[in-house]
Amino acid sequence: MTKVVLVSAVALIDVDGRVLLAQRPEGKSLAGMWEFPGGKVEPGESPEVALIRELKEELGIDTWSSCLAPLTFASHAYDDFHLLMPLFACRRWDGVPHGKEGQKLAWARVSEFSKYPMPPADVPLIPILRDWL
Ligand SMILES: Nc1nc2c([nH]c(=O)n2[C@@H]2O[C@H](COP(=O)(O)OP(=O)(O)OP(=O)(O)O)[C@@H](O)[C@H]2O)c(=O)[nH]1
C-alpha cells in the first residue's frame, strides 16, 4: 500500500518577482535537484507551522502564517511513497535566506527554471507559478 507523505513547500518571491530555489545536497534522495524550500510535516503540525519551522532551520529566516498564501499543490507517485505537497506563496519574511545546511540557493525567474532541474513532482507546478506571478 502506498504511503502518502505530506511535505509543505513555499515559493519565496522577492521584490523583482524572482523565486528562491534550493539545491538538494549530495547523499539525499534527488541530490542535485532544485526544489522549493520546505520539508515533511511532522505529527501534530499544520502545513504552515511545519513550513515556518523548516524555513528557520534550512534558511535562517522567519515568516508567519498570515504571510503564507495557498497557491497550488503537487500530487506525485514516487516509487516508494506518494508525495502530497501544498505549495504556498510568500513575499514577506525577516532575515536574508542562506543555506544553513550547506545547500546552494538561487533566486530565479520562472522563465529561467529550465536551467534548474527540478524533481518530477515539481514540474507541473512551474506553469501554474508562471501564470500566477
Ligand atoms: N522541500 C521540497 N521537497 C520536495 C520538493 N519536490 C519533491 O519531490 N520533494 C520531496 O519531498 C520530500 C521532502 O522531504 P524532506 O526534504 O523533508 O526530507 P529529506 O530531505 O530528508 O528527504 P529524504 O527523506 O527523501 O532524503 C523529499 O522526498 C523530496 O524529494 C520540493 O519542491 N520541495
TrEMBL record:
UniProt cross-references to InterPro entries, sorted A to Z: MutT-like (IPR047127), MutY_C (IPR029119), Nudix_hydrolase (IPR020476), NUDIX_hydrolase-like_dom_sf (IPR015797), NUDIX_hydrolase_CS (IPR020084), NUDIX_hydrolase_dom (IPR000086)
Organism domain of life: Bacteria
EC code: 3.6.1.55
Domain Nudix hydrolase: 2-131
Keywords: DNA damage, DNA repair, DNA replication, Hydrolase, Magnesium, Metal-binding, Mutator protein
Family in the record: Belongs to the Nudix hydrolase family.
Name listed for the protein in its UniProt record: 8-oxo-dGTP diphosphatase
Organism, as annotated: Pseudooceanicola sediminis
